[in-house]
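Archive entry. Fields below.
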Amino acid sequence: MNSRVAPRTLSHLDELEAEAIHIMREVAAERERPVLLFSGGKDSIVLLRLAEKAFRPGKFPFPVMHIDTGHNFPEVIEYRDRRVAELGERLVVASVQESIDRGRVVEQTGPRASRNQLQTTTLLDAIEEHGFDAAMGGARRDEERARAKERIFSFRDEFGQWNPRAQRPELWNLYNARVRKGEHVRVFPISNWTELDVWQYVARERLELPSIYFAHERQVFRRDGMLYAVSEFVERYPDEEPFGATVRFRTVGDMSCTGGVVSDAATIDEVVAEIAATNITERGETRADDRVSEAAMEDRKRVGYF
Amino acid sequence: MQAELLRLVTAGSVDDGKSTLIGRLLYDTKQILADQLEHIEDASRRRGHDYVDLALLTDGLRAEREQGITIDVAYRSFVTARRRFQLADAPGHVQYTRNMVTGASTAEVAVILVDARKGVVEQTRRHSYIASLLAIPHIVFAVNKMDLVEFSQERFGEIEADLLALAARLGLHDARAIPISALRGDNVVEVGEGMPWFDGPTLLEHLEGIEIAGDRNLDDRRFPVQWVIRPMAAEHHDYRGYAGQVAGGVWRAGDDVVVLPSGKRSRVAAVETADGELDAAFPPQSVTVRLEDDVDVARGDMLADPERPPVVARELVADLCWMSERPLEPRAKLLVKHTTRTARAIVDELVSVVEIHTLEDRVAPERLELNDLAVVRLRLAEPLAVDPYERNRETGAFILVDEATNDTVAAGMVREAS
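PREDICTED_STRUCTURE:
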């Protein structure tokens, strides 16, 4: 189209931000009981900032929910409580420990035990208990190949299952958020962002992150080529000797499946520079839960994993 | 780094080497990381290939890997020093028209794969037709497998002439052809050695240079109200802001406004974001507009320039891509979602359907089947403020939703409104 007005351009971060704000407002307008999932990780911290951009000076038209595995980095829980209090928003905590105590799930044992898979049941139970019909999360399409095909509005049936064969076509910015009772829709406002976009946005918006994202001294041990934090939640094999190292974490999942990388990057700018130069993907490097099989993510998503 | 975002869609079949092209773009722009490369090297070896199959990078779902075909739209990102790319990878088989329409709806550029051995075939015409229907502003024909025609300049010249004639016939204003070999990498990111006679840009250079800033409608102010911000708290007691994404024009404080469909008038008091007031807002920014008067405005209303308003329509003639397995019969009742408003509609008439093999119109079809491209007449239960799609891709587009299943069953593009 030939315009009378001089062309105007946005940076990629501005355009991704505008898209994400639009998506959040659509969720708020089209669903009765949305919820924003918050893990304490950088992606969900970005979501909180985007929610401020979408709804201030009003309140968020949804609560913030954390699925607490009980195996968190303490720094993350401290951050969560402080940040939600600053925002003056509602926090809902759904606990994997409670799911275990109520017999909904059975704790794994041994050095490979993780509560990562148990989260799925806790999440689905919480969605049902609170009657949530839309759950927004910080997943991104660049994280994993199955995610690349998932819609921004990803429909889940009564069992919380994703059916990749029966996805709704998603056209323009016209999102179909309709669900029946008992069903819900997962919504990923930052689907189109990359890890680097997220870090650049964190830097631009001067967002505070939990301290574990930056280089720090910590006791770790080596397993499958990754460095795990020594903690009471992870049993070690006899040959897994702890040692001190300067590490930072690229994701903040359950301590039992989140590995650190050796790094001296102590500031956001240093992390951005390191990521821009990195040659291993985020999940491949630090998430043991994706390493189980080639189709690992796809299998978990089908049963309702975020 | 503040690069501009470019959204592109690729169209072509497995046979055209589309997955290989995308893999090549990712690989040669250094987006393939060590663990991904290791992963596809293993997979290639297991399949008995003696080369690294770059196509494996983009095959997402297990079913596809097993069948060796791409079944759905996949989205991926890559970045160069000059641009941040968002790529929708749409399969090209005849039964997957809906996937290309989906990927094309948000695209600023379409890369259409052409096999140099076959030249312009039915599928090329179909993809080009869909690109024109969806009003994608820029088209690139990637004439692939040049290595299999001895990198013949003459062969490329013949195909290029056919392609440019096709583009002219379809009204594609910005179309060009680039000879490539995705397998070897010639003219994708690097120039390579195969075609010293070609003096145009490589595919990537071309994609990095396309001017997209003027593609959006900056003339006709359009602002679909998405959400009303009313804090009703002590410190913002009287605050009332209309939140939404600018769909057309440049918005400034002092601009006259008509609220549609009510027709009430006001003026813009401020255009702002959570970070403060803006001098001006333009598409696709998400902002909040405050008005000078306390007029009644709700989600679904459209704020517009009273001098250049959209049509407040009760009846639409529209291009439609039917996306459901269940056929569309005349008299069907469906929901129309247009900008931020949803209304009921009746299909008054199936005007014509495109014969996908010949691209000729067949008038008055009895029903529409999955993947049909058609023209229909819709009657609306309440008025919608629309523009012709060719004038504005935001305010001229809609989807149809089946209330019984909640499925999205069609993509629509307004031709005429009354």
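CURATOR_NOTE: The longest strand of chain B covers residues 341-355.
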